[in-house]
Amino acid sequence: MILMNDFKAEPPELRDAMLEATRRVLESGWYVLGNEVVNFEKQWASTCGVEYGVGVGNGMDAIEIALRALNIGTGDEVITTPMTAFATVLAILRAGATPVLADIELDTALLSIESVKRCINNKTKAILLVHLYGQVRQMDEWLNICTNHKIALLEDCAQAHLATWKGKTAGSFGAAGAYSFYPTKNLGAAGDAGMLVTNDESIAKRSSQLRNYGQSVRYHHPELGMNSRLDEIHAAMLSERLKWLQEFTERRQQIARAYHAGIRNLHVNQLAPPEEHDAHVYHLYVITCKQREALQSHLHKNIQALIHYPICIHQQGPCISIKCDPLGLRNSELHAATCLSLPCHPQMSDADVATVITAVNSFQGA
Ligand SMILES: *Cc1c(COP(=O)(O)O)cnc(C)c1O
C-alpha cells in the first residue's frame, strides 16, 4: 500500500537522532520552554529569514496568538479562504474576530484577489493568507492590497515550510506567519507543536506573553493569555528533523514534477504548476476529477488518496451563517467536490511514483 505519509519508512539515522534528542531532554530534567525551545525558535526564525520565532502548542494557536498580538478581536473582520483546515477559521473565531470568506481560483485553489477585494470594508483588519498545499503565490499583489487598505497581512504557513517566492520565505512577508509542526506537516514533531514567526519585536514579545497565561515576568499577568507552550521534547526532535527538511522538500518537488509530466487522463485535471520552482513545497499534490469517488476507489486497491478538503468552511454546521463574498463561493464548492490528494511524501520510491502515475492514467471513468 502506498500511503499518504509513511513515518515508519524514514531513514534509521533520523529515527536514531530523534531518540537521542529525546534522551537529551529527559536527562536535562527540563521539559517545557527551555533551551531546546530557544534553540529551535532561533533555527526556525533564521530558516524563515525573520528575527523572531515564538514556539507555541500548535498551528491553530499560532494564528490566534498572532491575531491577539495585533489587537485584532471583537468587531474586526479577517478575510480568509473557505478551502483550508478548519483550524484557520476556528483561530479567527477564538480570537473573537469575525471571519469573512472569499472565493478561490480554480487552477490553484488559492485565494482569489478579485474575491478578496469584494470583501474588504472599513471593518477589515487583516487578510489571513493560507499557503494552501504548500504554495506561495502573488505576494507582491497581496502586499500591495494590504498596504493600500492599511490592513495587516497574516500568513497561515502550516503547509508551506521552506516555500519561497522571489527569494523570500513563507512567513516573512506579512506582520506574522503561523507554522504548524503537526506530525504530517512537511516539518512535523511527534505530537502537536507550532510557531509564530515575525520581524516585529513587539508582536514577538506579546506572543511569548500570550502563550504563557499572559505572564510578563514570573507571577505577573498584565493580560489574560493562553496555555500554549512548546515542549522541549518536540523542539529537540524538530531540530533534528530540520536537518532533513531541505532534502525531503526536494524529494516532494521531484515527485510533483513526475506527476505533472506523467499524469495524462481525460477524466483528471491537474492544478497549474507554480510560477517558480521553490514557490511550492507540495505538502499535498492535488488533482481534480468529476468522478472522484470512482477514481478514489480505483486507486484504493493499492494507493491511499485523501480529500483536502471535502467540505468548505461555510458548509460546516457552526459556520453556515458566516460572512462570505457577496457573489458566493462557487469555485471553493466545486473544488471541494472534485479534489483528490495523491501520495507525495519523501519516503516514496521512484517505483511508487510510477505506480501512482500508471494507476491514475488507467482510470477509465465510471
Ligand atoms: C494543519 C493546519 C492548521 C492547524 O495546525 P495545527 O497544528 O493542527 O493546529 C492550520 N492551517 C492549515 C492550513 C493547516 O494545514
Element layout with pairings:
Blueprint: H1 12-28, H2 35-48, E1 52-56, H3 59-69, E2 77-80, H4 86-94, E3 98-101, H5 113-119, E4 124-130, H6 139-149, E5 152-156, E6 164-165, E7 168-169, E8 176-180, E9 194-198, H7 201-210, H8 232-262, E10 268-270, E11 285-289, H9 292-299, E12 323-324, H10 330-338, E13 339-342, H11 350-361
Parallel strand pairs: 2-3, 2-4, 3-12, 4-5, 5-8
Antiparallel strand pairs: 1-9, 6-7, 8-9, 10-11, 11-13
The structure holds pyridoxal-5'-phosphate.
The site of pyridoxal-5'-phosphate has 15 residues, from helix 3 and helix 4.
Report on the architecture of this protein:
This protein is of the alpha/beta class and 366 residues long. It is built from eleven helices and 13 strands. The strands form three sheets. It has an eight-stranded mixed β-sheet with strand order 1-9-8-5-4-2-3-12, with helices on both faces. A hairpin with a 2-residue loop joins strand 6 and strand 7. The longest helix is centred in the C-terminal third of the chain and has 31 residues. The radius of gyration is 20 Å and the shape is globular. The two termini are 23 Å apart. 50% of the residues are buried. It binds pyridoxal-5'-phosphate (PLP).
Oligomer: single chain
Shape: globular
- Biggest sheet overview: 8 strands, mixed
Distance between the termini: 23 Å
Helix/strand/pairing category = alpha/beta
Number of strands: 13
Which keywords apply here?
single chain, 366 residues, alpha/beta, 8-stranded mixed beta sheet, 38% helix, binds pyridoxal-5'-phosphate
